[in-house]
């Protein structure tokens, strides 16, 4: 379908239907440009919590739209492609997780927002990459903690909080794709560059980084740091915001193991959403996220705890 047609129809439909479009930084640039709000996971959850619209179109992945629905049971929440999964959320089986929790009944359970409603319902706290440290630090010393499902974020948290976390063995396929050897090669060719990395990246990548943070955290670091060149270890979608702001900074995507051409890492789950699917979902009000009420009431408790602390 023609892009101009899609843009004008999306604009017409969102007004007509009182819809708000929320998009994650990893979405296609056309989707970021048309969204009412673009943000990281925490900012998007906060926006979903205060959204004053009948319909929320969540241009992101399933767990994000599901979180918006948990927070807004009376709003219609749409996801452009219902198959927009996440290797972290999909790799954490609720039955196995419940068994782990039962094995350690005295542990406090902190769960990364990249997880299903079933996992959230089994948790004491939910966190995102921008508030995970704060949440771990809010748990009294001496309390033992299970952290799931991202082992890389978990190992990073162990280091920065000095707490002994029991980790689930999950990981993000996108952030595990960066090649240390190629990163070092690029850094040696650009020795004044600052390396910034998302904490879902592996430890050897994080050890090279001058700054570690969420997608918004990395963008703010790039905006405010006096360096002019940055090597960025996260999904390539965030480069669009930097390009848009014309900050006169050179951004080099951290290279992946496989790739010798585009040299960047893309999340196939995020990129499954397209402008055309966004238009169709607004037009048809489908696919819609639904959640069973009993599960929602369990899952909202740790999310609210996080939102109150943030
Ligand atoms: P943040 O938006 O919290 O940086 O997380 C990135 C991510 O992997 C989303 O799935
Ligand atoms: Fe999940 Fe990784 Fe994609 Fe984020 S980038 S949605 S953590 S697979």
TrEMBL record:
Subcellular compartments: Cytoplasm
Annotated function: Catalyzes the condensation of iminoaspartate with dihydroxyacetone phosphate to form quinolinate.
PANTHER family, sorted: QUINOLINATE SYNTHASE, CHLOROPLASTIC (PTHR30573:SF0), QUINOLINATE SYNTHETASE A (PTHR30573)
Free-text comment on the cofactor: Binds 1 [4Fe-4S] cluster per subunit.
Native species: Flavobacterium collinsii
NCBIfam families assigned: nadA, PRK09375.1-2
Subcellular location, principal: cytoplasm
Gene3D superfamilies associated with the record: NadA-like (3.40.50.10800)
UniProt-recorded Gene Ontology molecular function terms: transferase activity
UniProt KW Cytoplasm keyword: yes
E.C. numbers: 2.5.1.72
Protein name: Quinolinate synthase
């Amino acid at each position: 379908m023609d892009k101009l047609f899609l843009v004008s129809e999306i604009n017409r439909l969102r007004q007509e239907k009182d819809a708000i479009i929320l998009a994650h930084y990893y979405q296609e640039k056309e989707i970021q440009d048309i969204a009412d709000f673009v943000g990281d996971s925490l900012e998007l959850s906060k926006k979903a919590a205060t959204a004053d619209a009948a319909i929320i179109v969540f241009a992101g992945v399933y767990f994000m739209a599901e979180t918006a629905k948990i927070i807004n049971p009376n709003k219609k929440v749409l996801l452009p492609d219902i198959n927009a999964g996440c290797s972290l959320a999909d790799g954490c089986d609720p039955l196995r997780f419940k068994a782990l929790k039962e094995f350690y009944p005295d542990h406090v359970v902190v769960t990364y927002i990249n997880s299903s409603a079933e996992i959230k319902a089994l948790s004491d706290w939910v966190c995102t990459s921008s508030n995970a440290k704060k949440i771990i630090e809010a748990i009294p010393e001496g309390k033992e903690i299970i952290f799931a499902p991202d082992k890389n974020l978990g190992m990073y948290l162990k280091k920065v909080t000095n707490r002994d976390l029991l980790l689930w063995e999950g990981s993000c396929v996108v952030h595990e794709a960066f090649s240390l050897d190629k990163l070092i090669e690029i850094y040696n060719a650009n020795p004044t560059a600052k390396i910034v990395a998302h904490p879902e990246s592996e430890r050897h990548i994080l050890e090279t980084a001058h700054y570690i943070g969420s997608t918004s955290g990395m963008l703010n670091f790039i905006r405010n740091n006096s360096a002019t060149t940055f090597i960025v270890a996260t999904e390539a979608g965030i480069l669009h915001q930097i390009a848009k702001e014309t900050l006169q900074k050179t951004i080099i995507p951290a290279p992946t193991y496989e790739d010798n051409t585009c040299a960047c890492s893309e999340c196939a789950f995020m990129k499954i959403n397209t402008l055309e699917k966004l238009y169709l979902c607004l037009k048809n009000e489908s696919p819609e996220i639904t959640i069973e009420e009993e599960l929602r009431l369990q899952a909202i408790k740790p999310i609210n705890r996080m939102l109150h602390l943030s």
